[in-house]
Amino acid sequence: MDDFQLLIQFHINAERQGPGGERETLQAMELAGLDRSKKLKIADIGCGTGASTLVLAENLNADITAIDLFPEFLEVLKSRLRKRELESQVTPRALSMEELPFDPEELDVIWSEGAIYNMGFERGVQKWRPFLKKGGILAVSEITWLTAARPPEIEEHWKREYPEIARVSEKIKVLEDAGYKPLGYFPLPTSCWIANYYSPIEDRFESFLKGQNNSEQAIQIVDGEKKEIELYKKYHDHYSYGFYIGQKL
Ligand SMILES: C[S@@+](CC[C@H](N)C(=O)[O-])C[C@H]1O[C@@H](n2cnc3c(N)ncnc32)[C@H](O)[C@@H]1O
């Protein structure tokens, strides 16, 4: 099994594949001014098994295209949609976020939780903008520094993992420069990381390793996750995901 397949196996049975939470998705919807009075055409990009897709579908009158690179995640999303009788509102599509299947100005909303980093925040907000209607909403979460100065250990870690990590003011400037009016920002609280994401990951370590016969590859994945969790627990005052809501000018 290649590394990607193994990572998919590790994450596939989780409620979500990155930090976030239902309450925070609802908070972002509120800041974006989304309501049920109008049918909305939405893309949820990098949806994974659909943590945010389900909240959007349950709370809006929407026609949602849920996009992820990995069909395995979308199969789980399909079964979650079936259980909630939400299939008619969501079309899962296995595609790259680099090649969105929309016409210019087709979308009312672009939603993306913990995924835009895959193409880079700046490139993502620029490349996705043409698909939004004028006045359309972009709502994305993105790893963000919360402090002006950081201990070298965490600074170096994130610069290595994702050099585009930056402070809130810098991320908002990127949005403004790309032609969005910032409507709101809030940082994800620690519950989004620990209770909603890392604790369930920790609970899966043992069964995952057992299922993979303690292979070297599986041990490496678990060690990598453990290191990330340890860093978060030590340095969570310094970074989080920021939720950014912008409106296309
Ligand atoms: C950190 S996870 C977040 C998933 C989900 N939004 C959530 O909050 O649970 C990032 C997601 O982006 C997807 N992804 C990675 N590269 C992608 C690409 N080029 N195009 C589309 N999706 C991609 C991954 O498969 C994964 O599901």
Could you explain how this protein is built, in words?
It is built from 9 helices and 8 strands. It is globular. The N and C termini lie far apart (46 Å). The protein has a single domain, classed as 3-Layer(aba) Sandwich (Rossmann fold). Strands 1, 2, 3, 4, 5, 6, 7 and 8 form an 8-stranded mixed sheet that branches. By secondary structure, the chain is of the alpha/beta class. S-adenosylmethionine binds at residues 16-18, 20, 46-48, 51-52, 67-70, 73, 96-98, 113-115, 118.
Quick synopsis:
The chain is of the alpha/beta class and 249 residues long.
CATH topology type: Rossmann fold
What share of the residues lie within helices? 40-55%
CATH class bucket = Alpha Beta
β-strand number: 8
Strand residue percentage: 15-25%
**What characterizes the major β-sheet?**
8 strands, mixed
Map the helices and strands.
Layout: H1 3-11, H2 22-32, E1 40-45, H3 51-59, E2 62-68, H4 71-84, E3 90-94, E4 107-112, H5 121-128, E5 132-145, H6 152-161, E6 166-167, H7 168-177, E7 180-187, H8 190-211, H9 216-235, E8 239-248
Q: What are the key terms here?
A:
single chain; about 250 residues; alpha/beta; Rossmann fold; 8-stranded mixed sheet; globular; binds S-adenosylmethionine
